[in-house]
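hey all, quick one before standup. I had two proteins in the batch that finished overnight and I want to keep them in one place so we stop losing track of which output belongs to which input. First protein below, input sequence then structure tokens straight from the run.
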Amino acid sequence: MMNQLIEYDKSLFVFLNNLGSPTWDNFWLTVTNTYTFIPLYAILLFLIYKKFGLKSLLIFVVIIALMITFTDQVTNLFKRTFERPRPCGEESLMGQIRFIAVRCGKYGFFSGHSSNSMAAAVFAGLTLKPYYKNLIFILLFWSAIVAYSRIYVGVHYPLDIICGLTFGALSGYGFYKLGKFMMTKYV
């Protein structure tokens, strides 16, 4: 059963990865770049400051730093535990895929880009939902685009993405609850 699931995952990856074209490569390389969305993060922090004030912003910054550290470290733990090679490192896929990323990396289960972007989307979307009701949908869409970029550039399988998004959503929700608790206790 698990072997069949992995084969489906590889087949779906090859299909999705091959939908790419050189025309779109620079766009997806920009999307997958970690630093591309710093302006988005700055805007979200500004919105939090605007709605909650400076003291709350400082608490939120600490919570966000803890959340990103948590998701990143758990992702790395999973990668080292499962040791699932990335598709760009699979000899059997070399002639079948488009690899355009800057580097491949060793292990890919599960995607750190997916988990971190989803955690940030859920956390910020829920935190700001009382003030910006549709923001969460925009952030979830953004997270899905970031996640898909990892397939496009050739470094993650769809299951890596799905598991990363799921873990990120759970982390974002958990840290959102922590943020609410901290706001009632210290602000």
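OK second protein, same deal, sequence then tokens:
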Amino acid sequence: MKQDLFNQFASRKRQGRKSFSVLIDPDKVDSKSIDQIVNLSIDAKVDYFFVGGSLVISNHLDECIQMIKSQCDIPVVLFPGSPSQVSKYADALLYLSLISGRNPELLIGQHVISAPFVKMSGLEIMPTGYIVVDGGAPTTVSYISNATPVPADKNEIAMCTAMAGEMLGMKLIYMDAGSGAKRPISEAMIQKVSTHIECPLIIGGGIIEPEKAYKNCKSGADIIVVGNAIEKEPSLIKEMSAAVHSVSVSA
């Protein structure tokens, strides 16, 4: 099994280098907006593209990824909402297990069904412990998952969940307040989790200001993922990327 991107994630973490990823939902972009986002991302030295969404009903996942790959060398990582969201054109797949919930289908059930297809895709598979945190508003991911998020002020629950995920063999921990969250994950929770795990920590959901991205990195986040705010204002890419990378420079 390939481990090129995971090794890169792990290496950057060891070096204290923070990464910025732009999240692209195929349902919310067209060729013109993809061109704009890719060009802005190249200029801003964005590290990764995460592609996916909770639904992906537009049926042009492959086309979206091919457009990105034709214009740049920035790695594309699938962030799937279901087993059907697999594309051979990507570089890697976050194989998500919803460890914050108690829905067996999203812990292992859907993985059993998708395993042969995922294996045949040839993608680099990155086992990822996915933790949904209450962002102050019902989100698509909480609705689709039918699972209660971790309360925003229960840092110990998030910490123990992440520790359990890592000890069960998850290579990455992804904490997400969800698209459209009213409040992002607190720095206190990020710090609590990051100091108790060794694997790379990904943080997303509700990050709308560069200052928040910066504070998240200072608190221990390794990869910052922003999607919704960039959909509304693509020019934020430059500021977000600069904020994240400034932590690496000053570390």
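Flagging for whoever picks this up: The chain has one domain: 4-243. The two ends are 33 Å apart (CA to CA).
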